Amino acid sequence: MKNSLLLRFGTVITILFILAVSGMVSSMIIAETAEGYAAAINQAGTLRMQSYRIASSLVHRTKFHDELATTRTRELVTEYNQRLFSHRIHDVLTKGPHKKVTESYEKVESQWRELMLPNLEDYLKLSASTSLSTNERRQLDISQRNYLSLVDNFVDDIHRFVEALEIDAEEINQQLRIIQIILLTLTFLVALISLYLTKTRVLNPLRDLLACANAARHGDFSIRSRYLSDDELGQLGQAFNVMAEDLSVIYADLENRVRKKTHDLEQSNRTLELLYSATKRLSDSTLSEDVLIAVIHDIEALLGVNNGTICLGQPGDQHAYRYASTRDADILSKEKPDNQCAICLGEGRSHTFKIAKSDTHAPVNVFSTPIRDKTQQYGVLLVEFPVTTQLEEWQERLLETVASHIALAINVAQQVTQSRKLSLMEERSVIARELHDSIAQSLSYLKIQVAKLEKSINDERDKKDILLVSAALRSALNGAYRQLRELLTTFRLRVTDADLGKLIRETVEEFENRSGIVIEYTNHIGNCQFTPNAEIHIIQIIREALSNVIRHANARRARVVLECNQTGRVNVSIEDDGIGINDESDMMQHYGLPIMKERAEWLGGTLTINEPAGGGTRIDLNFNITDASNSESKKMLIEQLKHG
């Protein structure tokens, strides 16, 4: 990338690194170059002192005639040679100092070799002799005077050499300062440039991007990044702008979808509300015109349609029965039958057609949907709406669903009616059988006894015979009266909200209190659920059996046991410790046993009677709960209702 921020900041860091390294390297080089100058300057400075010390030793010998001064002079000359040609000075000269330094040193060295040292050597040579000639003495004095006359100029040359060294050392330090200043200036400039780049190329774009991100976080996708340079943050800004544009489109689409989903949920909520209201109305109350009109009003309020009507009829019928309608009663009373019923009923499918209103003759659309439960159609549900509008698909589906609920309610109402008829016919059949086996037989017996009484009177028999017949009549009347009371008690029996076990316990306590017989009651029916008719049959069988125990068994104890297993198999046993019944064929014709057997058949079960090993009588009723609703006796009665 041409304008990459990484490249720019990498360049800045590289430049700073180069400047830092350059400063360190230059400092090392200059320090290396300046190394030894101080020692050389110090060494050169001692040459001046050494020159005067040599001159002092010469003067000291001449003035005090000190022989040891010659030795001292020789030592000083030797030391001077060592200092002049010392490595301290030569190390500096080998580093390539300024030309003036080299020239100054060469001049000092030349004067020492050519002027100063020869005079000193002549002086030391002559002064070493113990006896000097006049000429030698004069030559010694000349050498001394020559050195002393040259020493000041020689020292000035040394001073200039030292000054040249100092100037050269100062120039080296000045170079170091200049280089450091230049490097520091460049570093400062590079730092300023990097700060400027950081502010303009990093901080400002980041602030812009953060502002855009905060706006996007708060849902404002209209904001765009202004920084679009050809670098990483510029590309990030461009990417953010593209992302914001995409998010704006996506959020707009999501808002539309949420709006649509909200609308759909509102429709679903209204639909569920209508279905709940319709189902509650249809299930909580007996199906009637008022209930259906309330359902139609709910439909009109939700869908915004008008004049709902429910007509009962089959497809192809020319006339139908208007069961419920929200149309004005006056208009309905003035309407005349026409051939619109066939159009409304249609062919058993939902359809829309146009008719003219009977009051204004204005055209109106009518939507007709069949009121159908599976394959059975009971009629149609009709709603009116303006010709300028059309029902939406969900509205049509909702009307079809409501129509199916109405059909189900009609079906349930018919089943309830049929069930009531069935229960009534079932109980009538049982009552007729019980009347035949009890009161009818007693009346037949009374009829026979009356005939015998008449015959006895006509034959003028003995009063004793007439009294016997009269006693038999009285006994028969008492028996018939007792049987009548039993039947009345049976007919008054009602199945309340109490469970079957509690009802049977109350029956057992009733017979126990009436007879004084100890009756043990065991209930193991658990959570088995019985139909009301099944409960009545079970209670009646137990009552009839306990009545036989009281009247015929001559028992002291009895036991009633109810059992129901997890498969719904029910066993009801009534056992006593009485005298038992020996003749089973005769037994089945008396004691109300045929009625008990018939009730067992109504339950789809069997009734068995046997004598336990310890004596007495045991009656067992066995049936399955699921068979109690589909027994052959009940099926026959249903067929009779259908064909009767």
TrEMBL record:
Compartments, record wording: Cell inner membrane
Membrane topology qualifier: Multi-pass membrane protein
Keyword ATP-binding assigned: yes
Main location: membrane
Gene Ontology CC annotation, any one: plasma membrane
Gene3D superfamilies with a match to the protein in the record: 1.20.5.1930, 3.30.450.40, 6.10.340.10, Histidine kinase NarX, sensor domain (1.20.120.960), Histidine kinase-like ATPase, C-terminal domain (3.30.565.10)
EC number(s) per entry: 2.7.13.3
SMART domains documented for this protein: HAMP (SM00304), HATPase_c (SM00387)
Species: Candidatus Thiodiazotropha taylori
Record protein name field: Sensor protein
Hydrolase listed as a keyword: no
Sequence ranges assigned to domain Histidine kinase in this UniProt record: 430-627
Membrane-spanning ranges: 178-197
Pfam families registered for this protein in UniProt: GAF_3 (PF13492), HAMP (PF00672), HATPase_c (PF02518), HisKA_3 (PF07730), PilJ (PF13675)
Reaction equations catalysed: ATP + protein L-histidine = ADP + protein N-phospho-L-histidine
GO MF term list: ATP binding; phosphorelay sensor kinase activity; protein dimerization activity
Record keywords: ATP-binding, Cell inner membrane, Cell membrane, Kinase, Membrane, Nucleotide-binding, Phosphoprotein, Transferase, Transmembrane, Transmembrane helix, Two-component regulatory system
HAMP domain boundaries: 200-252
Classification of source organism: Bacteria, Pseudomonadati, Pseudomonadota, Gammaproteobacteria, Chromatiales
